[in-house]
Every structure is written in structure tokens, then in C-alpha cells.
Specification:
CATH superfamily: Glycoside hydrolase/deacetylase
Largest sheet: 6 strands, parallel
CATH architecture: Alpha-Beta Barrel
Strand content: 15-25%
Structural class: alpha/beta
Helix content: 25-40%
CATH topology: TIM Barrel
Distance between the termini: 22 Å
Number of domains: 1
CATH class: Alpha Beta
Number of helices: 8
Radius of gyration: 18 Å
Number of strands: 13
């Protein structure tokens, strides 16, 4: 184990779960275009998460694209009519930088710090404009995860990054410039700390949309048996979007299975910013 990269599970993270949603932009477009909406919860997607918050106490961080495609609806266009309501719900709902667009894959694999900061600032400044600084999360999930230049975001008070313990097309899905030994450490532990960069790394346990409903319970049992007792689960907005090929009609049911399991097994939901 590296002397400067090691497991670091805060006491207040024990028996906790972090839940995030990647690739978001469409619900913000819906809020903007439906000028008759009186509340953010007139949007079906956000109304669903409020039901889960009331039922299971979930907290959620939405990781945002600037726009889904180049020249499509962008964060610059998002209405600020609901800023006060977003702030009022910031105790359980946050927003964070994810990427400029959905494509190409691995958008920051070869990006320098200047490019990363440009995209981060454009997304973050818009979040502050339409949802308030109270809704900002300083813990980041990079689109496709791989991003060697992450240390540049220390300039913006970022405290850490999510990682996924797998190889995609032969690439280790970890942010930062981790050595092979550090990647092994990250894969074996829920929360790790890198003294060199003073950044945390949370290892994801489950991408919910990758599983069938009848697979979720047994997969959760495997995860729950980990020694660390901190769980990180996520899903993507696309699987709730009927106009996209990714759409899964049972995506909400999948979330209910996961949240119910975690609640029944004694887990509380937290935001990364609360525990790191």
C-alpha cells in the first residue's frame, strides 16, 4: 500500500450510502420550456426523487452536462425562476460538473487543466445562476471517469472524485494519475485519500441501470457484505427518457428496490460534501 494513498473512511460515513445521477440535462430543459410550471416538482423526474426522499430519506447529486449535443439545449438557457426552490431543497439535492457533452467518450482522457477548468467553470457558474451556490457539490464525477488532469480542480475547491473499479476498453476507470498499486487500493476500499493532491476518491459499488430488476437484491447483498460499510450507487438520466434508446420503463422500480434494501439494512443517505 502506498504511504500517500490509503483508505480513509470518516466516522460519519459508516453505514451510509451516497447516491448520484450522471448525464443530466433533459429535466432542466423540461423545467425551462414548460413556462406553466409553478414548482420544480411539476417535472416528473424531480417529483420522483422527492417521493424517494420522503419515503427513504435519499439525498441525490445530479451531475450535469453543459449540453447533451453540441448546439443542443444548454445550461446557459436554463430558467432561474426556480432558484429559491432549489435552494430550499439543497439539504438533499445538489448539482455538480460532469462534462461538456455526452459525446465523445472519455472527453478528458487527454485534456489539459485549462480545458477542464473552462468546462467546469461554465457548468458551475450556471448552476449558481439557476440554483444558487447552496446547491453546488464539490465532489465530482467525471464523464467516463478517466481524467489525469483532475488536480487542476483543486483551484476550484473540489474535494474529490468518484471512481469505477473496472477496465473499459483496456482503460482503468480512475481519475487522476494513480499508480497500479494505488488503483488496487482504490478498488478494495470505499473511500481513499491521496496526500499528494489532498483529494478523496470514492469507489462506486453499483451502476443501477446495468442490472435487471431481479438481479439487484443479490448484487446488493454482495456489496453490503463489504467490510467498509459505506456504499456508493448511481444511475443515469438517459434511462428515464422515453425519447432515447437507453430508456428503461422499470428504472423507477429499480431505484425503489435499491433504496428499500439500503434503508432496511440500516443505511442512511448522505451527500459527499457532508462527510468529507
Amino acid at each position: 500500500m502506498s504511504d500517500t494513498f490509503y483508505p480513509k473512511i470518516p466516522q460519519n460515513a459508516q453505514m451510509c450510502c451516497r447516491f448520484t445521477v450522471d448525464d443530466n440535462i433533459f429535466f432542466l430543459e423540461d423545467l425551462t420550456k414548460h413556462t406553466e410550471y409553478k414548482s420544480i416538482f411539476n417535472n416528473d423526474y424531480l417529483a420522483m426523487y422527492r417521493r424517494f426522499h420522503e419515503k427513504y430519506g435519499i439525498k441525490v447529486t445530479f451531475n450535469l452536462f453543459y449540453s447533451y449535443y453540441e448546439d443542443s439545449f444548454s445550461l446557459d438557457e436554463v430558467t432561474d425562476r426556480f432558484k429559491d426552490e432549489f435552494i430550499a431543497n439543497s439539504d438533499w439535492m445538489r448539482f455538480a460538473f460532469h462534462a461538456r457533452h455526452n459525446a465523445p467518450p472519455y472527453p478528458y482522457e487527454h485534456a489539459d487543466g485549462k480545458t477542464l477548468l473552462r468546462d467546469f467553470d461554465e457548468i458551475t457558474n450556471n448552476i449558481i445562476r439557476f440554483a444558487g451556490k447552496e446547491c453546488i457539490s464539490n465532489f465530482i464525477t467525471i464523464h467516463y471517469v478517466l481524467c489525469p488532469a483532475t488536480a487542476a480542480l483543486k483551484e476550484r475547491s473540489v474535494i474529490g472524485f468518484m471512481s469505477i473499479p473496472e477496465k473499459r476498453n483496456g482503460k482503468d476507470s480512475y481519475t487522476g494519475n494513480l499508480t497500479d498499486d494505488e488503483i488496487i487500493t482504490a478498488m478494495q476500499n470505499s473511500i481513499n485519500y491521496d496526500e499528494k493532491t489532498q483529494l478523496y476518491y470514492i469507489t462506486n459499488d453499483m451502476v443501477i441501470n446495468k442490472f435487471q430488476k431481479d438481479e439487484l437484491y443479490s448484487e446488493l447483498e454482495k456489496i453490503e457484505n463489504k467490510k467498509n460499510k459505506f456504499i456508493d450507487v448511481m444511475i443515469h438520466e438517459q434511462y428515464f427518457c422515453k425519447h432515447l434508446e437507453y430508456y428503461q420503463p422499470d428504472a423507477e422500480q429499480k431505484l425503489d428496490i435499491v433504496f428499500k434494501f439500503l434503508k432496511e439494512h440500516g443505511y442512511s443517505f448522505v451527500l459527499a460534501d457532508e462527510i468529507l
